[in-house]
Every structure is written in structure tokens, then in C-alpha cells.
Amino acid sequence: MPPASTRRWSRVARTPLALVAIALLVVVAALAVLGPVLWGADAEAVDTGNILAGPSARHWAGTDNLGRDIAARVLVASRLSVVLALLAVAIAVVVGLLLGTAPFLLGRGRAGRLVTAAVNIAVAFPGMLLALFFAVVFGVGATGAVMAIGLAGAPGFARLVQTLVSGVAARDFVAAARVAGVGRGRILVRHVLPNIAEPLVVNATIGAGTALLSFAGLSFLGLGVQSPSFDWGRLLYDGASALYLNPAAALVPGAAVLLAGLAFNLVGESVAKGLGVEGLGIEGLGVPVGSGRWVLPGRTAAPGPAHAAADAPDPADDVVLGVRDLAVSFRGPSGPVRPVRGVSFDVHRGESVGIVGESGCGKSLTALAVTRLLDDDARLEASRLHLLGTDLRAPQATADRRKLGTELAVVFQDPMTSLNPARRIGAQLAEVATHHQGMTRREAAARAVDRLDAVRIPDPGERARQYPHEFSGGMRQRAMIGMGLMGTPALIVADEPTTALDVTVQRQVLDLLSAVRDSDAVALLLISHDVAVVGEVCDRVLVMYAGRIVEDLPAAELATARHPYTRALVDAVPDMDTDLDEPLATIPGRPVDPADVPAGCAYAARCPLADARCRAQDPALVSDPHAPARRVACWHAGEPLPAERAVDLLVESP
Amino acid sequence: MTATVNAPPPPTDRRREPSPWLRFGARRVGRLLVSLFVLVTASFAMIHLIPGDPVRGALGPTAPAELVAARRQALGLDDPLLTQYLRYLEGLFTGDLGTSLSSQLPVSGIVAQRLPATLELAVLAFLAAVAVAIPLGVAMGVLTRRGHGRRTELAFTTGSIVVATVPDFLIGVGLVSVFGVGLGWLPGAGNDTPAAYVLPVIALAVGPAAILARIVRVEMVAVLEADYVRTARAKRLPARTVYLGHALPNAVTAALTLGGLLLGSMVAGTVLVENVFAWPGLGSTIVQSILTKDYPVVQAIVLVYGLGVLLANTAVDVALALLDPRSTIRED
Q1: What's the whole-model pTM score?
Q2: How far, in Å, CA of A93 to CA of A99, rounded?
Q3: Cα–Cα distance between A577 and B72 in angstroms, integer?
Q4: Does B113 touch chain A (CB under 8 A)?
Q5: Angle, nearest 10°, between helix axes A142-169 and A193-220?
Q6: Which of A222, A412, A508 faces B231 most closely, judged by CB atoms?
Q7: What domains can you pick out in chain A, each with its CATH number?
Q8: A228: which residues sit within 8 A by CB, 6+ positions away?
Q9: pLDDT tens, residue by residue, A305-321
Q10: Which of B146, B250, B275 sits opposite A376 (nearest CB)?
Q11: How many DSSP H helices and E strands does chain A contain?
């Protein structure tokens, strides 16, 4: 077995549950082998003077109607019970394999489809019903019951095999073998079966447990093993009839069936879980996971270097969103990962601020952090995080919730998944008003229709009664914006609102956002990877790289950006003068992995201006002495780029 | 705020397809009919699949040959197979399920007399399972959502596997010996008083409840990660509304699919539980009839169980389509 797979198996064996189950299974197997040898005589010893007795020192589980020791009989019965269950599961697996591989062997012809349809119909009926049917056909008794339970289990296995086979058959190597002219039977044996063996064995193990319990059921009904033979189910059947005299006569064989059935099931389930759930470390089970607690910086937090502007006292009232030293971290496999590392900025009333950067630079996490919508496993630190006058670091009171619910609008990237598929559009808008604005359902519904109209949804009355899947992507995004307009927003946070949309629809959504802003002096925080969009829609641009803001400048001055990264972003935008014969400009190298941020300036590895200082010391974000509205974090801000080097890098870019 | 918005006109309206409901209905009825045909044929074929002469088997080796011949004649077993099949179908349509070999009573009467008790047991147990499983699954889902309650998750997952593994008849035997025999609190047999329903319903409901609660939890955990739950949080709705109003309706769709399968298996599960509690339903009748080789009764009861399963599955499909209209459209 290759090392990786050995590791997987050893991980299975490490869970306490799996260990218990494996130990139990070993005991059951040992009893099945040794039971009849050790206790066979005791189990048959008749003592007519002591029938149906309760537990005593000699017979700790009591005696049956012939005075035989029940405990000994239970131990002896383990062999027959286990053997019959294994026989039944073997029948189920073999018949299941035949039926399940038939569609593959027979191809897409009528015969293959017929088998599939038959299996689908059979699977719809519960195993118990199938078992009864076959028990009638094969007759009452151990042989009939083995056949019945085996065949009752076959459709389930056939369905499983079918699914597994079609999964493997779709893979490239099977297609390649087919193209090479290898016969279907050969492909099945050489390529397909080895690939489905693992799940099949796991399910057969679980199936053995189920067969054991089902067999006990049939024997309990009197349809399985017949006297004088006895399995656990038969002992249970005899015991249940004497339940009022000696409950142990039923409970002890019952417990035996249960433990043995559980042993098979749990071993199967643990193996399935251990093999199936990759990476979900069982190691982590004992460790409490960070719970999104709000931690003030100081001893624990190490926010990025603060700068003069950020340390200024609480700015005037017109700051809608004030962020200082914001950091977001996650628990990673090797220590915490910090995708956002000390971000500070303000958004003023009516101002439109864009955050740009490549994927993974932390811009979306910043948006989620400042709206307090981070997932629970993220940990947030900040020395200041004020949104509309509410300190977001504190737990929110109802009044804060109401304020945020009506004055903050959030638009997400993917309108296909951001609306609840199970609820009508109108209702999703209306609940904002019923929860936060004290409207009745009727008023809120009318308001929702009015807002849908405001975002140019045609037929808003009818549309409000529809579900999201009946809307196009652009309409959904407009509905999301309309949802934000249910209250009287002072800030709209839009996280890549156009990325998931068609190019023509992108324009409509951007125009809508601009229009909403113009009409009511609403502030906008627009997150985008597209510097052209941000430059067009926003007043001010924050450029993020590797979890930091590297430049903060008015959108109108993007052409004179001073950070080499901003300049590269701007240069990468094609315009009317772009030579279409040249390859599109890209930024060479890869963005920084948040789990592995280098020392010094994070951009140094990709920067044509980088020198030794850049690789050693991280530049702080400082105001430009000549233009206080601009901030930049670069040791070489504004220096001319070596043109010829940039061209070289373009050629070797990935 | 004002609604002066200068967006360009939106794209033209999407055309509606010619009623997906009609296609869904036709497909569903078609599938039901095929399954019914298979079921009826299987129950007819059962008596012919039995090796040897079923009548000789039923009457025993000592029965006079004339009696066997007369019974065969009465059952029509000597006619051509097709004739027998057509007569069987005709009987089904006219409500004639044949005559019991042992009691000589019409089978339809036996079924009509025994069916209500079984239905009561199955439906009550199903409702009990759903009533327990959904709140439990939702609560567990919330407690073990991403980044929370790893220990709780481990305990719940393990516990529910163990509970779900215990077969209903063992739970039944355990309940009878503790509450019936040991404590004497509740009757352990029959269905004469309301109290007599308690133990059988619990015995039948526990396993399905554990399975259902597991599924609801898994679905809930997945749904709580969905974008639309974040949207609901962005609306600053109370946690209760986010969980119950936004997450639950989406989590319960998958749970319902499974619930349908469980309802079907509970119909058949009554067989064992009825035999534990001497419940006067179809389950105790079919076992007696199998043991006495009263094949017409067995045939009829298998048919009734199968029909129950098919109807339960169809009901769930329809309920799913109503709850989640996408499933009708997505399905091809």
C-alpha cells in the first residue's frame, strides 16, 4: 500500500470510536470461531428441573424452556449468526456487482437501460419488504432467509456499484483505454473494479452489520433459523415469548445482536469517514477553534505600522466608516494566517471609495470585516472600527442592529447565490422593513414593490411574487441593491458587484449604483479587482496588496500613481491606444500567499524597483508631503520604472 | 429616499416555458404507473415462484390429493398463466383479493380490518420522528456550524449512528421489558388504550428520527455557509429569523427527500414492531400467513405495503416540488 494511503488508514484507526468498534469486531470474530467449541456442551445441557428460571449464580442470564443456559446459548449462537450474515452480504454484493456493472458492460443499449430501470424501481422498496417477499418465495428457514436478505440487499449494492462505475468510467484513463480498443470486460476488470474496491468494501462491512440485524429480525419473526438450530434472532424469539418470566432471556441475545451489528456498522462508518473526509484533521478535534471573538489590539495583536493620519483623534461626524489597524486572521494548518494585516481608512458621508487589488489581497475580507459579516472562524482585530457611529467591535444591541439594518446596504459578488432560493423576492426585501422599520406586512410588501421599481425591475408587482431562479443575473443584483434601499442607507458596501455578470449587464448595475449615490449622497465602498471600474465610479481609490493598503489616492490621479504596484495595475488596463497585436500587459509573478508573507515589502519579489532595503523593511503607509490627500507605502514611491526590464518581465510572465 | 435612478432599461423579459408543472406531473404519474405494474406483477408472480406446489405445501404432505386438486382449481392455478394474470388484475380492480386458504374469508376483508391499525402506527411514528428530528437537527446544526462545537459534533454524530443502528424490534423488546414488565407504567401489547400507542410509536420512531436529525444537521451546517445566509445576516435580522426563516427552509428540502424514504421504510418497519407488541395490524397478519402458507393473504399484504411505499414516495415528490419549485424544473 502506498504511504499516503497507509497514513489514511492509520488515521482511521486513531479515532476512539473506530478503536472500540474494531475491538468489538475482533471479539465477535473470536466468539464466532471459539464459541461453539467452548460452550457447545453447556448450550445443549437440558435441565428440566430448572426451566425458564431468572438469572442466578449458575445461569447468569437464566434458562430457557428446557432449562438450558441462555448465556452459553448466546455465545454459541454467535457463529451461526455471523456466518449467515456474511453469506447474505456475499449474495448481496455478488448480485449487486452483476446488476451494477451490467449497464457498463451492455453499453447504452436497451438491455443496459432495462437493468438500470429495474434497479431503480427495486431500490424504492424498503429492504424489509423485499426480504419478506423473498422469504415467501424461498420458504421459511435459514437457507430461505439467507437468500431473502441477500437479494433484498442486492438492489442497494447495485445502485452503489452503478454510481461508482459510472464515476470511474467518465475518467480519462478509461476513455483512453476505450480509444485504444480495449474491450469493456477487460476495462471493467483492469481499470474500473480496482478503483471502486475501497468504497465497496466499506459498504460491504456496513452491509454485514445490516444483514446481521435483519437476520435477527427474520429469525425473531420465526421466519429465519428454525429449532433446534439457533441464532441470536431465534433466541430472541424464544426469549420474547417468556419476557414476563425472565426478561434477560430476550435482553441478552438482543444485546449480542446489537453489539455485533454495531461493530460492523461502526467499523464501516469510521473507515468511510476516515477515507472520505480528507484533511478534516482528527488531530484538531480536541482543540477548541477560534470563535471569532473580538480582540482589542495590544498584547495579542500586532497591527501594521500606524501612521500619523490614522492616529488623529476621532474625526468629524461625517465619517461614515472609520477603520484603524484592522487585521483578520484564520487558524491555519501551521499557525495563524493573516490575510488582512493592518488596514486603516475612513469613508466620509457621500464619498465613494474603491478598494482594488488582485484576488487574495484581502479586499473582500476587509469588506466583510467592516460590515461585521465575517465567518465565525475568522478572528478580527482593530484599534477602531466604527460604522455609522456604532462600535462594531462590541456586541450589537437591538438598536444598533436596527440602525445597521436600515442604514447599511451590502451588495455581494454573486447574485445567483446571494438571494434565498426558497423565498420570494418581495418577501426577502420586505422583511427588512418589518424587522427594523416597524411596518406591517402589507406596508412592507408595498415598499418592496416600490423599491424594485426604483431599481428598474419591470412589472415589480408581479416580480415581487417570483423566486430568485425566475430572475436573470442582472435583475437579481438590482434586487439586491433594492434590498439595500429598503431603509435609508448612508453607506453601500458592494463587494465585486459586477464580477459575476455579463459585460453588458455590468454597466447597468454600475450605473444604478452611481445613480443611487448621486440622488441621496450615499457613501459607497466598492470592492473590485478592476482598476478601470473603480477609477470611473469612485472618488478615491485604496490599493491593497497582501493584506495592506499600499496606496491611497484620488481616482482622478490614478495616472500619476506613485506605487509601482498601482502603476502596474493601471498599465494592465487596455485602452483605445493599446496595440491589439501585442499581448495584453500583465503583472509578472504571483500574488503573495497570506500563509507565507515575506519579510520587508510584500511586493518586492515582483517589483522592478526593489532593492535590499525593500526586502528587509516593510514601508509604512505615509502621507505625501506635497499632497496630503495621498498616502503611499513604498521606499521608491514615484521613481521611474526601468522600461526595458518591464518588457522582459512581460515576456516571461505566466 | 427618492427613486430617480438613471439605469438603462433592463433586458427584455424572460419567456416562460409551457408549464413545467404539466411535464412534471406526467413524468411522475408515468413513473408511478411503471412501479405499480412491477409491484402488481411481482405480487402475482410470488405464488408461482415458490418451488413445488404451493397448495400442497400449504395443506401439508398428508392432505388428500382430491383436496389439493380442488384448492388448485379454486385458486385457478391450473389455468394458463396469462389467464391467471388477467384474472388477478381484474380482481384488483374490483377489490377482490381472493380468499384466505386458512380462514376461507375474503382477503380484502382481512386487509380492511387490519390496515387501520398499521396506518395509525406508521403515521404517528413518522410524525413523532419528524417532530423530534427537525428541531434537534437544526439546533445541532447551529451549535456545530463552521468553527463551532467540534466536540458536540463528534458526540452527536457518534450517538446518532449508534441509535440509528439499533433495530426497531430490539428497541421494542427493550421498552417492553423496562416500561411494560419492569416498571409496569405502560402496556406492552395491543392497541386498546391511548397509552398502548406510546411504546410502539417510540420503538418505530427512534431510528428514523436519529437518521433524519443527522441529515438535517448536515444540511443546516451546509446552508449556514451559503451566501444567502450572509445576506440575511447583512440585513441584521435576529438570529432566530436567520436560522428558522432563511436557513431551515433550504435545509429541510433534502431532509424531506430522505423523510419520504423513511416513511416508506417505516411502513415496512411496522412488521417487526407489530410482532413485538402484538399489534393487531397487517404486520402480525403477514407473518402468521407466511408461517401458515396462506399465500393469497401474503400476496395482498405485500401489495398493500408496496402501494404504501409508492404513495409515500410520490407524496414526497409532490411536496418537494411545491416547496422547492426548482426541483421540478431542474429534473430532466
Answers
A1: 0.76
A2: 10
A3: 96
A4: no
A5: 150
A6: A412
A7: 4-275 (1.10.3720.10), 295-422+467-569 (3.40.50.300)
A8: none
A9: 333 333 344 445 688 89
A10: B146
A11: 23, 14
